Amino acid sequence: MSLKRFVAAVVGSFATLALSTQPLHGQDQSLYSETAPATIFSGGAQYLIMSRDTKLSSPTRVMNGPDAALTGFGDMDFQYQSGVRAFLAAKTDGVKMEAIYSNYGNWHDQNQGSLTQGLAFDNGTVGPWAGANSLSQSTYFSPLAFASTPLLGGEANEFEGLGPNTGFPADAFPTYQTWYNSQMQAFEINVITADSSSTFQYGLGFSNLQLTETAGVAIMGEFRAADVAGPNNGISHASLTGVGGLAFSGGSANGFQDEVGNASGFADTLTLFRQAETRNTLNGMQAIFQQEVMYYRGIVVNGVVKAGIYHNSASGAILERYTGVDTSPGGATSRYGRSFSDTKSAVAFVGTVGLQSSIPVSNHWSLIGGYEATFVHGVALAPDQNLTNNGTAYSVNTNGDVIIHGGNAGLQFAY
């Protein structure tokens, strides 16, 4: 090879090597580097274990007398009940959007047993029911008080009630059952800041909350009518419907009869039943505040506060039934009852405080858990539903408060 050709080959080799080490400015460097995804999606589910405390605004007494507390709702105890929560979220460009559904569970409690005294429908506590329980125009089952009390326009020829009394001391004490059921669920759509450089986040959301309740009392015992003057051996059909305001709903239209009024010689077994139902539908906006209170090796604990003003579309209903049964073979049954209902729009408040933690277990999965408490004001609670105007009118009461509190635990998946 000539010297000229050798020099040309060496120069060409170095030129090629130099060109190969230069960056290719037309090439997309993002293909060779990792970047954070534009949007992070997450979802999960939690098991809830929640209890609730109730502050009744003005519960009506079931009866007056020594067993008033026994048959009331003050001793109701809602234990912790199981619930569930599910959520979906998307985080992008410093904003997090989330949808949350929570079913807090079904709370229920009931008490049952026997009264310690008989139950007078009228002013029999000055006579054969001395020292016993009694009804009045301001207690449950007021139609019986009206129908049997002379001062209220009822019958004056007898004292009426459920035994035992001085004339029938061997009667079994009346039995009672009191129950209270409650269910709450909520749906939220929230928009919250997601600023990775700040430990404090905030946002706004829309929330729908539904609270449904039933509460009632049933009392059963032996009907007795103690003669005063011109007895009719019971409470007549005319007094129950005309003075008591009850509607006849089936059976024999002969009122309630004692052992003399019934041809069988057996007194009616009388059952008194009253149940109230309420439904609250709350819709409103809520403010949301979240503060990171701890971070350690990927473990995060956040404090969360939510509060908002809601419109409550509330409805309520009260049902009463009175049934007298002659338990002898072929004995007659008499049924009476009445019902009330009402709707109302009211302003309510809902606030929640809690701590929520997240513990990553892989690139995509995290364990989540925490504790929270929710306060609700301005709702219709079933035991608060009272009759007005001497027990003849009804307006739904929305002055009730509820506190729900408990823990949660679950899994979250993020991608």
Report the major sheet.
10 strands, antiparallel, barrel
Number of helices: 3
The residue fraction in helices comes out at: under 10%
Task: Tell me the total number of β-strands.
Answer: 18
Look at the structure and give the mean pLDDT.
Answer: 90
Strand content: over 45%
Strand order of the largest sheet: 1-2-3-7-8-12-13-14-15-18
Uncertain segments: 1-34
Task: Give the helix/strand class.
Answer: mainly beta
Radius of gyration: 36 Å
From the N-terminal CA to the C-terminal CA, the straight-line distance is 65 Å
Provide the domain count.
1
The global form is: elongated
- Compressed to H and E, one letter per element, the order equals HEEEEEHEEEEHEEEEEEEEE
Features:
415 residues; mainly beta; 10-stranded antiparallel beta barrel; 8% helix; elongated; disordered N terminus
